[in-house]
Design goal:
The protein is mainly alpha-helical and about 100 residues long. The chain has 2 domains: about 1-60, Helix Hairpins (Orthogonal Bundle), CATH 1.10.287; about 60-100, 30s Ribosomal Protein S14, Chain N. Helix content is about 50%, strand content about 5%. The protein contains 3 helices and 2 strands. The chain has helices spanning about 5-30, 40-50, 80-90; strands at about 75, 80. It has a two-stranded antiparallel sheet. Strand 1 (about 75) and strand 2 form a beta hairpin. Helix 1 (about 5-30) packs antiparallel against helix 2.
Length: about 100
């Protein structure tokens, strides 16, 4: 189980990303648009810098929904490899079968 503070910090980041997503997307589109003049693009970059760092989507960490483990996560299930194997062996994940050859 991951530290509760790490899990809570990640949840706060998710809320910030959601709050600033519209504003961030607009500024990013302006900053990346090469048809705009350089001054307008620079102003957009400066405004992006004023947005809190934790509002950047790349700072959100994918974590296991059951244990909070930050590594070896399967996006499709939202679980870490450890929990995926454990629940899969118990037959609690529909459509998942143990491979054998």
């Amino acid at each position: 189980m991951a530290k509760l503070s790490s899990i809570n910090k990640n949840e706060r980041r998710k809320k910030l990303v959601k709050k600033y997503s519209g504003q961030y997307a607009k500024l990013k589109a302006i900053a990346d648009d090469e048809s705009k003049d350089d001054m307008e693009r620079l102003i957009a970059r400066l405004k992006m810098a004023e947005i809190p760092r934790n509002a950047n989507p790349t700072r959100v960490r994918n974590r296991c929904q059951m244990t909070g483990r930050p590594r070896a996560n399967y996006r499709k299930f939202g679980l870490s490899r450890v929990m995926l194997r454990e629940l899969g062996n118990k037959g609690l994940i529909p459509g998942l079968t143990k491979s054998s050859w």
